[in-house]
């Protein structure tokens, strides 16, 4: 008894989309936020917040491994 190939194909597509939504997109959003946080304009910041909200389940899944703390400021003597 074998599983039809259309079921396997559909399952692979769903797994690929779930992996992209839960792992790939949140990592891309995280690295983009880290790079542009201090220099983003108002429209860009709106899209940054939108994608953070859109990818929230994946960000929540990755949150134990990611560091969202701000960079330390240099103290001039």
Textual characterization of the structure:
With 77 residues, this protein is mainly α. The protein has a domain of 37 residues. α1 packs across α3. The mean pLDDT is 88.
Pick out the low-confidence regions.
none
Evaluate the radius of gyration.
18 Å
Mean pLDDT: 88
Strand content: under 5%
Query: Percent range for helical residues?
Result: 55-70%
**What's the N-to-C terminus distance?**
76 Å
Bulk shape = elongated
User: How many strand segments?
Assistant: 0
**Structural class label:** mainly alpha
**Main sheet record:** none
> What's the tally of helices?
3
SSE order, one letter for each helix or strand: HHH
List key phrases describing it.
single chain; 77 residues; mainly alpha; 3 helices
How are the secondary structure elements laid out?
Layout: H1 5-36, H2 42-54, H3 56-62
Helix pairs in contact: 1-3
């Amino acid at each position: 008894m074998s599983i039809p190939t259309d079921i396997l194909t559909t399952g692979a597509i769903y797994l690929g989309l779930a992996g992209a939504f839960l792992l790939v997109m949140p990592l891309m959003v995280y690295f983009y936020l880290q790079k542009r946080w201090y220099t983003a304009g108002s429209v860009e910041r709106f899209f940054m917040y939108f994608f953070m909200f859109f990818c929230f389940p994946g960000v929540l899944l990755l949150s134990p491994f990611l560091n969202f703390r701000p960079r330390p400021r240099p103290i001039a003597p």
